[in-house]
Amino acid sequence: MAIKNKKLNLKDKYQYLTRDMAWEPTYQKKEDIYPDEQFEGIKITDWSQWEDPFRLTMDAYWKYQAEKEKKLYAIFDAFAQNNGHQNITDARYVNALKLFLSGVSPLEYAAFQGYARVGRQFSGAGARVACQLQAIDELRHSQTQQHAMSHYNKHFNGLHDAAHQHDRIWFLSVPKSFFDDARSAGPFEFLTAISFSFEYVLTNLLFVPFMSGAAYNGDMATVTFGFSAQSDEARHMTLGLEVIKFILEQHEDNVPIIQRWIDKWFWRGFRLLSLVGMMMDYMLPNKVMSWAEAWEVYYEQNGGALFKDLERYGIRPPKYQDVANAAKNHVSHQAWGTFYQYSQATNFHTWMPEEEEMTWLSEKYPETFDKYYRARFEHWDKEQKEGRRFYNNTLPQLCQVCQIPVIFTEKDDPSVFSHRQIKHEGERYHFCSDGCCDIFKNEPEKYIQAWLPVHQIYQGNCGGADVATVVEKYYHINLGVDNMEYHGSPDHQRWLDIKGLKPLQSNSEKKTAA
Amino acid sequence: MSQKVFIAFQDNDNARYLVEAVMQDNPEAEVQHQPAMIRIEAEKRLVINRATMEETLGREWDVQEMLIDVISIGGNVDEDDDHFILQWN
Ligand SMILES: [Fe+2]
Ligand SMILES: [Fe+2]
Ligand SMILES: [Zn+2]
């Protein structure tokens, strides 16, 4: 090839450095080299049709990623050197970081493992390269998030063992099982689940509010790692959309398979994001936008444009989208109410909103907050102030699929819990919704194996029979120090010390503060 | 139904030039300032031209440099040496 001219154009460079690096096998059969490519029923007739719109090659990848890392770590250093944690709006905010570090950062690591695996399983070189680059990105996200939060771990409680907790704590089985479900599926379902449904359709709802929230609450370190990760995300999202279009264009038999996966992973993602909804509405002292507003912009508007675009392939919007749209005015309140009651078993503190926050909630949720939630929250607030902070000691019924307690209500009646159950081979299984029940019915042999935290506690598999033993010994939470009511907690006390400019306690003393 | 494409950048020094260039080439686009980020949306199509960016910046600019400052996008991507386009069909 004649490369006389000084610079290859993007298209040629991409061709030489990705597609042309692959070869046709001669002494092994393709099916033996890529054994997982067939079983899901997806038909690929021509891998060369695969488009990577960013046309990213390894040399450019290292160059831009190195630049991102340099910027990021300069800011981490500045943040630590200037005691950046003292400039946040309020220490209640740090609880959002505890949720993030134990609930989201381990998912980045799971994504790294997932993409490294599928990056080996496709016979098309373009898809393999895109997945391998993404695997490295996801590992970077997991690492930079832990580095950013390590500064907070020096000054606040509850950030000390996130990876251990991710595999054990009851509500963390919600994000964990989501990714485990995707990673234990075939390679095409994995991409539909994570690249398309999660990253393209829903990830804006996770990162953009979280990072804007961090910016609004004075947390420079989190804004920076978040946006640095998001700069990779634009590439991941594009991959997600291209994957779907590619599979749909390859064969019409792929359409119903993809539609079923979109239905499944939209619903699973929507349930998972209820954690983000409560974070936005309740855990940010300075609020950016309500969960309902974020859902309107990032799902109803952007998702609407997307599914209109996909119509020409015979794809319709996800099943139960109407239920999800209607739920935007309820999920955050229902989720926070649940975490408040079970805060003896969470790895962060909870509290009832202050009066001006209640006013904000009434304004943002004119049809639901005052009517369904305010009275209960005011009652709990009063109880707490009178020394009777409410904790619920009955373990909840979990959904067999999303693993969230059955706490959400019916679409047409917010006073009735949504609960479904079916019998399968003599056993009864419980669900939070028709969406989750449908997912089970399609693959019962997968979901009967679910590791449900409440069942596991009752079966004696979590270190003990009472809350204190499970929480302290099995979850590694310091009961009453890392969790329960925020007001009067060591974190709260420490924050008052910081703001009152009293001498600070040393790090070694912080865990024992009363 | 309206079909908006969008792109969001970190609100930093580079972004000022990007926004300026985008607005020059897409006068109907709408710029939204949000905490730490700038979001630009447009009906159906949004284009970033290398030529306009180089003019605005006063130096050579590689379309892939944008990857450093972008936060999120919505729409089908078409990129080559001279432009970055987002669109819905
Ligand atoms: Fe990531
Ligand atoms: Fe990602
Ligand atoms: Zn469920």
UniProtKB/TrEMBL annotation, chain A:
InterPro entries: Ferritin-like_SF, Phenol_Hydrox, RNR-like, YHS_dom. It comes from the Bacteria. The keyword 4Fe-4S does not apply. Keywords: Monooxygenase, Oxidoreductase. The keyword Transport does not apply. GO terms for molecular function: monooxygenase activity. Residues 418-451 form the YHS domain. This is Aromatic/alkene/methane monooxygenase hydroxylase/oxygenase subunit alpha.
UniProtKB/TrEMBL annotation, chain B:
Belongs to the TmoD/XamoD family. SUPFAM superfamilies: Monooxygenase (hydroxylase) regulatory protein. InterPro entries: MOase_MmoB_DmpM, mOase_MmoB_DmpM_sf. This is MmoB/DmpM family protein.
